[in-house]
Amino acid sequence: MDTSLRVNFPPDPNPKTPRLAMPKGACDSHFHVYGPPNIFPFTDKRRYTPPAAPVEHYLQVADVLGLERGVMVQPNVHGFDTAITIDAVEKSGGRLFGMIRADPKLSAEQYRALHAKGVRGIRFNIAHHLGDVFDEDGYFRIVAKVEPLGWPIDLHLDADQLEARIPMIRKTNLPVIIDHMARVKAELGPLDPYAKVLIDLAGEKNVYMKLSGANRIMARGASFGQVVPIAQALIAKAPDRMIWGTDWPHSDVFEPGKMPNDGDLVDMLLDYAPDETVRRKILVDNPATLFGFK
Questions:
Q1: Each residue's pLDDT tens digit, 163-207
Q2: The dihedral of CA 16, 21, 25, 26: what is its sign?
Q3: Domains in the chain with CATH codes
């Protein structure tokens, strides 16, 4: 293992109680769980080392924020081992579903068995910083295995990769989620060419946008308000296909003083979607439709 791996900071241990009162059934559609590594080891191929962030910690944070449901997205530090995802789902008392990394080695039968254990989606990590080589033929082979399950397909990519993937997205016979608003540069605003591609794509009938990772896309030293015009433009395009997530425990933070407070992230929804009916779609109705929450 590379001993020069970056080490990221733990999440804020004291999330603020948000001003926004969450509606019943509110869902955090994107968070991670890490370890503890003595029980769920980190892969030697990881690119950073996080502190332990067990599901018990997350559920305490969710209670403070008023989140009743969630989708635990399996992080890269655990490789393709789904044990941590299944464990989180089992410990949640029915509150959580899981999303795993797309694994070409799994058969359709194995994916079906994971469905029975609470998995409801697969994620392809093709963003530049993750260094994954993307095989479009392999993508469709995996998608075919989960198509009978109706799982959404999550694409974690960068804004400059998005346009080239639009034909592939249109050919996908399942819902496709664009992770973290395609990591556009919020400082450039919704008229930036990459942002315009993203916003136009939001109009595609099988595309969902994940309004998460605000601290990932704003400029260094900027306020969260920089992200609001992008989020508002996406919501205006397709309010019925927007979902939201905390991105807890914020694995991209490698500098002291940069860790967002999750209560602040919740309150950004007041600016993203001032209308309560639209917020309910983003927080309750859309994720219920997409992931199958009852």
A1: 999 999 999 999 999 999 999 999 999 999 999 999 999 999 999
A2: negative
A3: 6-291 (3.20.20.140)
In terms of Cβ atoms closer than 10 Å to its own Cβ (0-12, 13-18, 19+), residue 275 is: exposed
Amino acid letter for position 170: R
| Backbone φ and ψ of 6, nearest 5° | -70, 150
Cis, peptide link before residue 249, omega less than 30° from 0? yes
Band of the pLDDT at 131, cuts 50, 70, 90? low
Tokens of 120: 């409801």
Number of C-beta neighbours around residue 274 at 10 A = 10
Handedness of CA 260, 121, 56, 25 (dihedral sign): positive
pLDDT in tens, 22-81: 999 999 999 999 999 999 999 998 989 999 999 999 999 999 999 999 999 999 999 999
Residue type, 135: D
